[in-house]
Structure formats: C-alpha cells, structure tokens
Amino acid sequence: MSRLSGRTYIHDKPPSVISYACVGGKKEGEGPMREYFDKISDDPYFTTESFEKAESEMQKQAILLALRKIGKKPENIDFMLGGDLLNQCVGTSYSSRDMNIPFLGIYGACSTMAEGLLISSLLVSGGVGKNVIASTSSHFCTAERQYRFPLDYGSQRTPTAQWTATAAGAVVIADAGQGPYVKGATIGSIVDLGVTDINDMGAAMAPAACDTIKNFFDDTGKKPEDFDLVVTGDLGLVGSSLLYQLLSNEGYNIKPRHKDCGLMIYDAKRQDMHAGGSGCGCAASMLTGYFLPKIKAGRIKNILFVATGALMSPTVNQQGESIPSVAHAVWISSERS
Fold first, then answer.
1. DSSP three-state, residue 322
2. Looking at residue 154, what is its pLDDT?
3. How far apart are the first and last CA of the chain?
4. Confidence label for 38 from pLDDT (cuts 50, 70 and 90)
5. Cα(204)–Cα(310) distance, integer angstroms
6. Kind of pairing between the strands at 181-186 and 325-333
C-alpha cells in the first residue's frame, strides 16, 4: 500500500469486492432503479413493530444476502464495519447483534458507505483481515422524526429538501477475488462553510465533495477523463450544481461524467422528490445495486465513488450551529493492475 499524502492511499494489491447486496422500500421500488435492488419490501415496518426495528431488519437482510451470494456465513467474516443515521448507530448494532462478528461502528452520515468501504480495504490490504463486510442503511420514517418533524405533522417540504431513502447496502471485501477492485481512496476532511439550513444539505455537502475530489486528483495526478464516471453520494440538484462551480474554480470539470445517487434513485418529476434522494442507504444501494454489477461485468472500467455526509445534529442545529460535512472518495476498477 502506497501513501501519496496524509489523505490518499493507493493499494499495491487492490482488495476485491467479492459480494454485494441491497434492499429497498416501497417508494424505492416505485422509482426508476427498482430492477437493481436485490429485494424490495412494500411494508415500511419490514414485518417488525417500529420503523427503527425495520431499519435494522432491512440492513440485516442486505448483509445476509451479500453473504449468501458467496456461500459464506457470519463466522467466515473477520470484521464488520457499519453505521447509519440513528442515535448511536442503533440501526447497525441491532442488525448485527446476533451475528457474533467483530464489530467496528462508524458514522459518516450519508458518506458511511464510502467510509466503510475505504476502511475495509485498508484492513484487508494491510493484512489485518481476509474477509471484511461494510454495511449501512437509512429509513425515511426514522430519519424524518429524528432530524425534522413528527411524521403526522405533515410539514411542507422546501424546494431544496431531499428525501431520505429507505434502503440498505452491504459489501464484502476480500484479499483475493475476481473484482471489482478497490484501487485507492482519499479520506475526507471536515468542511464547513456556514450553511445552517437542514433542508439544504446539498449546499452544505458540496464544498466537502469538492475538497475531496480535488485532493484525490491532485495527489494521484489523475484527471476526470481517466474515469468513466465520478459518482457522488447524494448532493441532489442543488449540491450537484454547486459542485460543478466549485470544481471549475479549481480547474476540474466533472460534469460530462458525473452521476449523483440522489438524482438516480427516484424519478424527480413523477415522484416529486424535490431536490433528490439522500440518506446512507441512497449511495449504498446505488453502489451495490447499479454500479458494482456493471463494473464486475466490464461495462464500466473505473469510477470514483464519492459519498458525502452532512454531520448535523438536531440539538446543535437548534442552537444555531452550522452543518459540517465530509466526503470520502474510493477508486473502484474492473482491473486489478
């Protein structure tokens, strides 16, 4: 493993993504990406008694599906990394409490999938583990009543608001496999330009995405043209537009090859998602359901996956604090060398 800077790592022997799976809810099943989910549930409770339990069940199903695809069981996994949007990441810890896998809880808000993927690849590349799983989830109903308003309140959503995806994703990283391969990563830094509106997360996260993407290209000497796609987590309409402007100021143009998971997961006109989708499960489900299969099949050669997270808290936001954000970049390729 080569360290290009304090933030960017390139793997000499890139770890392989040997399995992946994603589960979605009813609204996700009504969107344009339905066919890319392994499983869709029309029941927001996922047969449980609460939305919080539903989120844990959803993430558990994604994890077990990813393991089942490669004939592995929880006892075959060295470590598990995971997180979600709920207080103290209970969605993840409750989903895995019966699996008896050595567990590392992580939190990066909507950037959690990229964070888990890059840490897993570092553990495998460094010889700490041979099989590591990374997972995350979000649920519209749990996030809405934790961060915004009670579900029964019926509040009017602003045009810049994004819809938290009810979705979960899991990946298994190994030291050997047929790909896709994690070739490198840039760990993001906290960026806060003073945005305070919790209904405009795209504006809060775009500067962090710009900072991480710029650092990746500067550190590696790569250019946007070296990648088939630059995929952001869920900047939505507002954040994507701002990202183009910010990167243009730095001399980079990603617009011709940019995809945003928040703009992919729903049909903006038919489903009226306002500025797009968001939540940990948004980027996770699009990565595991859409991009990784295309990379494995050789239809896409290289992507730079940049999931973004708004690290806000309802308590400090009500105290007038701004929203710090972070973005992590992971280079995923169909080729190991």
1. coil
2. 62
3. 13
4. very high
5. 7
6. antiparallel
pTM summary value: 0.94
Radius of gyration of the chain (CA): 18
Indicate the CATH number of 2-174 among 1.10.150.450, 3.40.47.40, 3.10.560.10, 3.40.50.920.
Answer: 3.40.47.40
- Confidence band, pLDDT 50/70/90 cuts, at residue 152: low
Is 168 within 8 Å of 279 (Cβ atoms)?
no
Nearest CA among 139, 321, 109 for reference residue 233? 109
Measured CA to CA, the distance from residue 288 to residue 36 in angstroms comes to 9
d(CA 138, CA 142): 8
Contact 186, 210 (CB under 8 A): no
Q: What is the Cα–Cα distance from 186 to 331, expressed in whole angstroms?
A: 9
Of the ranges 157-161, 195-199, 222-226, the best mean pLDDT one: 222-226
Q: How far apart are CA 72 and CA 334, in angstroms?
A: 23
**Which H or E run contains 106?**
none
Helix (H) or strand (E) holding 214, with range, is helix 201-220
Indicate the domain borders of the chain: 2-174, 181-333
Alpha-carbon distance of 209 to 248, in angstroms, equals 13
Neighbours of 186 (CB within 10 A): 29
Look up residue 321 and give its two tokens: 């604090």
Q: Is 203 helix (H, G, I), strand (E, B) or coil?
A: helix
User: Torsions phi, psi of 76, nearest 5?
Assistant: -85, -5
Q: Which fold has domain 181-333?
A: Peroxisomal Thiolase; Chain A, domain 1 (3.40.47)
How far apart, in Å, are the Cα atoms of 159 and each of 31, 43, 69, 163, 320?
Answer: 20, 28, 40, 11, 21
Q: Which tens digits make up the pLDDT trace of 278-311?
A: 999 999 999 999 999 999 999 999 999 999 999 9
Neighbours of 87 (CB within 10 A): 11
At 101-138, the pLDDT tens digits run: 999 999 999 999 999 999 999 999 999 999 999 999 99
| Pairing between β-strand 277-278 and β-strand 163-164 as defined by DSSP bridges | parallel
